Amino acid sequence: MTSLPEKKPARRRDAEENRARIVAAAREVYASAGFDAPFDAIARHAGVGRATLYRNFPDRFALGAAIIEDDLAALEAIARKHGDRPDTFMTLLTGMVERHTEAHALVPVLLREPGAPALQALVPRVTRLLTAPLERARAAGLVRADLTLTDVIDVLAMLAAVLADDGSGRSRHGRMARALELLVHGLVPRAAGARVTSRR
Amino acid sequence: MTSLPEKKPARRRDAEENRARIVAAAREVYASAGFDAPFDAIARHAGVGRATLYRNFPDRFALGAAIIEDDLAALEAIARKHGDRPDTFMTLLTGMVERHTEAHALVPVLLREPGAPALQALVPRVTRLLTAPLERARAAGLVRADLTLTDVIDVLAMLAAVLADDGSGRSRHGRMARALELLVHGLVPRAAGARVTSRR
DNA sequence: GCCCAAGTGGACACTACTGTCCGTTTCGGT
DNA sequence: ACCGAAACGGACAGTAGTGTCCACTTGGGC
Fold first, then answer.
1. B13-CA/D29-C1' distance, Å
2. Is the dihedral of CA A26, A28, A34, A37 positive or negative?
3. What pLDDT digit, counting tens, does each position of A61-87 carry?
């Protein structure tokens, strides 16, 4: 069903270029103005008309999906390259922080969008990317034994939360790195017996 | 300057009631529809006209500030009650999770809003609430020695991030508690030497 | 019980964004 | 170089939210 070679009607070169420019522009605009940024602003920033944008991406979710797909591909490449090593999981986590995080931060934000069919299609791919590395990291004792995939999604959401500019002048990268550090090692000292006494 | 007793022009009873109803409604609407929820929806949910809402709160930030002020007062009471105990800091953190978190979650979200004069006025109050307990917790070794106030604000933002409904059916409370647990104890096992090798 | 100031909420004009339509331009095969 | 198809982008009408105005209602001092 996916192997029909005669399915390509041959895209025009300029159309392909425009598509790429739009995705790049969307990256920047989403990063600076948030995911709710006016569609129009993205078109203007990309130097195309709004109609062109709509022709390529029916709605903002499709556009978000395109961005995420790029990043997902990059992360999958990292995972492939690192193979079965038990620290692949941590590498993926830090990889998201390392290579500037606006777009990756969309992953958790968008995955929990209810009415976004284009995005739900990506969920299994994210699952596939993370499941095996997480399992191996757990087996090797690099992460706590009770850490689930759901936890990881939430962790990504938490990391995304510190992306918003707080006017403190600290770079996004610096804040992300610090947040990851806090998350990985926890708020309490390693040796301390402090615990969360949420109910007696 | 604040001690003029003749400054009260005597509010009317029904006006006071409406104001309270609006704040309560805003709590629910913000929680379920997010901080960007239409002002109109809040008015309708409170059973008042939009003009009444605007008369009480010139913009959504003033309304947000009113909500936060309530919660802040509650947390200040907790802090006062716990006095100098070194675990007051953790109690404040868990307190936010315990007593349903929609509104408290606004704290970090709103504190980093750039154009929100009504909110910036609350910053020193938040600072005052947290500084001493944090210091005492650090001194007692209950939290890591390098934990700063800025970190704590980011932690609050991170906790807020898991409030968004993810459709998983897990309760907000449950997710918050889990997120706090992860944050407090970290992703790596207590004994493990795993570290974030973000740059070699 | 009366009256006026305080308070109310529906109506209105305004703005920002959305999504589509259509006349014009550009690509690429011949 | 020519031509048809593909792609473009400005223009347009529709919609949702905002903030204000004003004729009407209500509380509370007298």
1. 14
2. negative
3. 999 989 888 888 989 999 999 989 999
Instruction: Convert the pLDDT of each residue in B41-77 to its tens digit.
Output: 999 999 999 999 999 999 988 999 898 888 888 899 9
CB contact residues (below 8 A), chain A span 14-43, against chain B? 36
Q: What is the mean pLDDT of residues A36-52?
A: 95
Nearest CA to B35 out of B158, B159, B160 is that of: B160
Q: Is the pLDDT of residue A117 over 90?
A: no
Helix (H) or strand (E) holding B133: helix B123-139
**Domain at A14-57: CATH architecture:** Orthogonal Bundle (1.10)
Query: Tokens 């999604």 — which residue?
Result: A153
Rounded to whole angstroms, the distance from the CA of residue A117 to the C1' of nucleotide C24 is 35
Q: How far apart (Å, rounded) are the C-alpha atoms in residues B194 and A185?
A: 9
**Cβ contact, residue pair B177, A154, below 8 Å:** no
Domain boundaries along the sequence of chain B? 12-57, 60-188
Residue B174: list chain A partners with CB under 8 A.
Answer: none
Please indicate whether residue A163 or residue A192 has the higher confidence score (pLDDT): A163
- Binding-face residues of B in 157-196 toward A, CB within 8 A: 157-162, 164-168, 175, 177-192, 194-196
User: Does at least one atom of strand C sit less than 7 Å from the CB of B88?
Assistant: no
Q: Cα(A169)–Cα(A163) distance, rounded to whole angstroms?
A: 12
Burial class (CB in 10 A: 0-12, 13-18, 19+), B98: middle
Tell me the pLDDT band of B4, cut-offs 50, 70 and 90. very low
The spacing between the Cα labelled CA in B50 and the C1' in D28, in angstroms, equals 25
Tell me how far apart the alpha carbons of residues B101 and B93 are, in angstroms, rounded to a whole number. 11
Which among B157, B162, B188 has the least Cβ separation from residue A162? Answer: B157
Return the CATH fold of B12-57.
Arc Repressor Mutant, subunit A (1.10.10)
Q: How many CB atoms lie within 10 A of CB A8?
A: 7
Nucleic strand D under 7 Å from the C-beta of A11: yes
